[in-house]
Design a protein that fits this description.
88 residues; single chain; elongated; mainly alpha; 0% strand
C-alpha cells in the first residue's frame, strides 16, 4: 500500500501589530465602588436597627409606615448588593 505525502505547514507568523499603541484593559474596580458598597450596607442596616429601637421618637420615621421604613433599609442593602456584583 503506498504512503501518502505529509502536508507541509507554514511556520506561524503573528499578525502585524498595526498603528498606534494598544490600550490595556483595566482589571479591577473603580476606587469608589468598595467604600460606596460598604456604606450602603451599613446605612441600610443602621436604618432598620434605629427604626426598631427608636423609630417612634424620630419624626421622619414616625411619620412613615413600618413597611416603608423597613423597605428603605432593604433598598439601601439592595443597592449595596447591586454594587457588589460589579466588584472585581
Amino acid at each position: 500500500m503506498p504512503e501518502s505525502k505529509g502536508r507541509k505547514k507554514d511556520a506561524y507568523t503573528p499578525p502585524p501589530t498595526g498603528k498606534g499603541e494598544r490600550k490595556i484593559a483595566r482589571l479591577g474596580s473603580p476606587r469608589w465602588l468598595a467604600p460606596t458598597m460598604v456604606a450602603l450596607f451599613c446605612i441600610g442596616l443602621a436604618w432598620i436597627v434605629v427604626y426598631y429601637i427608636a423609630g417612634s421618637q424620630i419624626p421622619v420615621m414616625r411619620d412613615l409606615s413600618p413597611i416603608i421604613n423597613v423597605g428603605i433599609g432593604f433598598a439601601f442593602i439592595a443597592g449595596g448588593f447591586v454594587l457588589s456584583t460589579r466588584w472585581r
